[in-house]
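S1.2 Input.
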Amino acid sequence: MVGPVPSVREILAGRAGEEMSLNDRHLNPQLGRIVRTLGFDRRWVRGEGAHLIDSGGARYLDLFSGYGVFAIGRNHPEAIAAVEEAMEAHTANLPQLGVTLLSGVLAEQLLARAPSSVAAMVPANTGTETVEAAIKIARAATGRARILYAEHAFHGLTLGSLSLNGDPIFRDGFGPLLAECEALPFGDVDALERALARGEVAAFIVEPIQGKGVNVPPAGSLQAAQRLCREAGALFVCDEVQTGLGRTGRFFALEHWGLEPDLICVSKALSGGLVPIGAVLVSRAAFDSVFDGMERAVRHGSTVGGNDRAAAAALATLRVLESERLVERAERLGALLLELTAPLVERYEVVSDVRGLGLMWGIEFGPPSSRAHRSVWNAAERAQPGIFSQLVTVPLFHDHRIFCQVAGHRMNVIKALPALVVEESEIRRFATALEEVVARAERLPSALARFGMSMGRRALAARR
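S1.3 Output.
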């Protein structure tokens, strides 16, 4: 017999400690196995600014930031207050056949910060919804079917956005995906020109900086891509779901290259970390060609897209970004992080590159030059591609309380997306800890032995 549904307060007070068992029974037990094996199975009880806090009171520098969601930090009081204000106002939320104020003001504010090439907003709830909307709008506006995207791209995991995903581990088993979608090498202008020349391209969708791998575009490639799309009558779409709202030291990353896209996809950080939200900023020509009459006014939408609480959180996010000068802060601290970590390329054989823009940063590892260590590296990589990155992320977590991520499957790139409110002292602490861990990891035989033993113990415990 089902009992009464407990309140949030009752759940938090009475069932603390059941997180992993509930996950294993009802959610994703394979994720539970990963978390246990890596030793990341902390009981997180609080989030505050750039930190996660576990049940023992230990503070961890969070360089995941919810994949970029917590740009203004976790539980920012101004964002919380804005959502509470919207709730207390008892607004006439989501009248559906009608409009409300907060979503309109949000559109006004976003468009005021965007290039003049866009003039309207289509509300959504998530990043993948914005990409789905962009695909539909591009096809309807141009009357064409083909969508071009970049290899290694990540645009979401619903079926349309998955069709533009450059990683087969996400795509395999879910086909057939959308037809007429073609991957091109990231930043390859000649390949884009050839693909456009074959005709019938509705849009080229690209992340200004790729999240999977933190890949920065070759100089001039994005400007050339925009020009080629215009010449071919295809729409140029910037996916700013992760790069937007100050992450790279500009409000939109596209500003670094002076781009003027036909569509811009925005989500993640726009939520303030509180209420999911997304938005597609669309050129007037594309918008009017899709919503071109009263009978077609609702041909695309989302039931709770544009809701008042999400808009309130988003408006608060924009205020915090400006009042705390977080965009400028991301530029300054990102430059510092590169300054502190770029020398690792010269100091350590296994560090092949350090790159990024603003507080979107990555370090790439490659095989050492010495024959003995290279053979150990190759053997380890054959057994588990991308394992060297784990020799760095796991000790950062356990020894330094720094929570960061590998930048993609089977990839020896580590990525950091700190909250834009992160303190300079924490950036310096991360750089110091990173060098200490890399120095130990470069001693491959002993590092792999330590890692193997610790993983084995955790894997055994996870099976139990």
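S1.4 Remarks. Residues 444-463 form the longest helix (20 residues).
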